[in-house]
Amino acid sequence: MIKILAVSFHYDEKSTGGAAKSFLNIIEGLNRDRNSHVERLSIKSIKKLFDPFNLTLYLNIPIIIRAINRVKPLIILTQTSPAFAAIIAANIKKILVINIIRDTHLICPKYVDIIAYGNACKGLKSRRACFDCIDYWRTLRVLIGNRPKGWQYGFKAKISNLGYKIRYLTCKINIFLFNKATVNLVATELMKSFLSTQINPRKLKIVNITPIREREFKDNIIKKKKQLLFIIPRYEASHKGLDFILRLSNYLPEGYKIVVVGSLLGKEKIKEAESKIINVGPVTGNIINELYQNSEITLVPSFFNEAFGRVIIESISNGTPVISSPNCGANAYFKNKSFLKIIPINVQLWKNAIEKMIDEPYHIPKNEISSINKQFSIEKCVSDFQILIQSILNSKQFS
Fold it and tell me: Is 221 among the domain residues?
């Protein structure tokens, strides 16, 4: 039996965040397999002054080493910010470490790899290029609606710029540590191409890291409500397209509203779109599925390089079509499918696409849904992981 130590922030079954749900599904799937056993280690980030630079996470290195000594794992499985302490601990103890890279926020100084309205960065190329991007970010935040007009000239904006420029150094360290992992896993070719200029391509693998739970599918057409669905993490995520959605809500067909689920927004944030928005906080998986099924369209207007876009497959598996921005990695899995429309970030274009989808509703056939559920099932994920682990154990190519 292969012992694995999983290192992450938390293991919350109620989380609406794709990264947390996917990681938990992977762990549960591996534990179902008789050839592997996963022990969980939850580490904490100390919310202090230097937390934006992830420095306090390194205090967890001794904790992870003690867990390694106790569990005696063959492999560490980790993701997101806890990965850095886990990679260091694994290298100290000379054991394998598999790191899952979910997005680009750990290698972008300003957390969001947006370089222009609707355009994402191609990689951390040079300090000069990054600093120019950071300087423009103040103006761009105003353009996308994330900050009020004139904010870019204020003192707080200048301070945030300074913080991002300091964080450039931490991003370089993060890239160095990613290269010290045994292997880094990504979900799509989009993410691999973004990272391959900074991380050794031999240490990058595309694997099913976004498994969805099996559920009973009823082959009947559910009467939809006059609503569209938009899902965000528990924090306000402008890079996920929140401000774009608030503007778009003013152009909906008569009687339609957008359900924004995952985070409770301040009244000031939604005051101009309040009549067109239904705001719901974090919910359970069953309620999320009901929201998918009751909505006519799911909206995924990500501004940045969306490494995958779990919302896309969750929506389709619940029988609801999707409108997505071009830079979502999951788009590549559904080329030329009628249930996914890929539209550039533009209010008028999205308005037109929504109206057409409402006027010409598309019922996703059961065989399409079954195929997607199989492709992204926990069973397939576990199978992919077992093949990967064996290839690491049997080959020196990752050393």
Answer: no
